[in-house]
Specification:
alpha+beta, Beta Polymerase, domain 2, two-stranded antiparallel sheet, 22 helices
Length: 413
């Protein structure tokens, strides 16, 4: 395991202090899994038999981040580390949160976790970490399996979000979902709607922006998770558009690709741009609790497909306005995935971008007022016309722009 990162050094220092006070303490969960796979862990967590009050006494300035679960955030000089007390949980009446929590030992703590590969502990030592494995996680890492700890029906019944987590881990790591674990997911998938939409959306976006979004989508569809995730009828189309994108993909582009794949709009830009997606966009936004930024980018990219489809019919000003959209980059990536032949307009796109697609306007509303015009709808028409003339190099300086405005204003009186 790597001993270099500041987070690991902070976690090991916490473990040593806990041990010095007579407690058991280990590295826990995902950081152990990732290090065994040769992946640099993003975060390090510590699990201990010290109860939260004891942890807080040992580390002044620490604070609860999950008091009901015995989780304390300890700030070290190099990083902040979550320190959790070994615990048991039971009574998941809402399929999300335990009704009761009881502090326990390392083995019982491991056995209440979700998947075997996440149930590992590591005892950091100078000669190399000693792996503590109560659940067969190391064997499943070697076999490249996502397996629920114990009874999969029970594990998923405790927190239905674990069904999506199984897909995310499988897609991220290139693992298979173990047969009994997969068999338990399909009949329980309908209960996913009991989970908060924000948590569902976080899992889905993590999958789609991960290293293998196509595998994630195929697994979701095969395990019958797509319908309750998106609040729409189940479907199992081949994610052809998504498959033509190269990870990492931003969330709006990945969502747009999956949306088109599920609506049969992947055969051509004409088909894709012709789809009515407003209702679908509203449904997906609610189902995945999408942020305003993601929603706007998703809508903007899909809308721009029409302009890309009709590129040959657009004038220079319209093309430049299209290229100036904040969603152009995603839409252009998406369009080439929908219809690879659209790449033929790439040379024109590059030339227009080199010429400048969004120069500062040479005139504004103050100029129209100075000409004696009253503010109103004509302002936008006149200023849009002047800006189009500027984009097309009909006018290239302020004097020419003012003259163009005066002439246009006279002609539209």
């Amino acid at each position: 395991m790597s001993h270099a990162s500041p987070s690991r050094r902070a976690a090991v220092a916490i473990i040593e202090r806990l041990r010095g006070a007579g407690h058991t303490a280990y590295l826990a969960g995902g950081c152990v899994r990732d290090a065994l796979l040769g992946i640099e862990p993003k975060d390090y967590d510590v699990a201990t038999d010290a109860e939260p009050d004891a942890v807080r006494r040992l580390f002044p300035g620490s604070r609860y981040v999950g008091e009901a679960f015995g989780v304390v955030l300890v700030a070290q000089r190099s990083a902040s580390i979550e320190v959790a007390t070994f615990r048991l949980e039971w009574g998941y009446a809402d399929g999300r949160r335990p009704d009761k929590v009881e502090f326990t030992d390392a083995e019982h703590d491991a056995r209440r976790r979700d998947f075997t590969i996440n149930g590992l502990f590591a005892d950091p030592r100078d000669g190399g970490d000693e792996i503590i494995d109560y659940v067969g996680g190391r064997a499943d890492l070697e076999a490249r399996l996502i397996r629920a700890i114990g009874d999969p029906d029970q594990r998923f019944g405790e927190d239905y979000l674990r069904m999506l987590r199984a897909v995310r881990f499988a897609a991220r790591l290139g693992f298979e979902v173990e047969a009994k674990t997969a068999a338990a997911i399909r009949p329980l998938a309908k209960y996913l709607g009991q989970i908060s939409r924000e948590r569902i959306g976080q899992e889905v976006l993590a999958m789609l922006t991960g290293p293998d979004p196509v595998r994630a989508v195929r697994l979701m569809q095969a395990l019958k998770l797509d319908s309750p995730t998106l609040n729409e009828d189940p479907a199992e189309p081949e994610p052809a558009v998504l498959a033509r994108l190269t990870p990492p993909i931003d969330a709006p582009t990945a969502l747009a690709a999956w949306m088109l794949d599920r609506r049969g709009g992947s055969s051509s830009l004409t088909a894709a741009a012709g789809l009515s997606l407003d209702m679908v966009l509203r449904r997906w936004r609610r189902a995945l609790s999408l942020s305003n930024d993601v929603r706007d980018a998703l809508h903007g990219q899909l809308r721009l497909l029409g302009a890309i489809r009709d590129w040959d019919e657009l004038g220079v000003a319209q093309r430049k306005r299209t290229l100036a959209s904040p969603w152009w980059a995603g839409a252009w990536t998406l369009a080439r995935a929908v219809e690879p032949g659209v790449g033929r307009i790439g040379a024109d796109v590059a030339a227009l971008e080199a010429d400048g697609v969004a120069p500062p306007p040479l005139v504004n509303g103050d100029d129209l007022i100075a000409m004696g015009l009253e503010p109103g709808p004509r302002f936008k028409q006149l200023l849009d016309g002047a800006y189009d003339a500027q984009l097309e190099h009909v006018i290239d300086d302020r004097d020419a722009a003012l003259a163009w405005l005066r002439n246009a204003a006279e002609m539209t009186r």
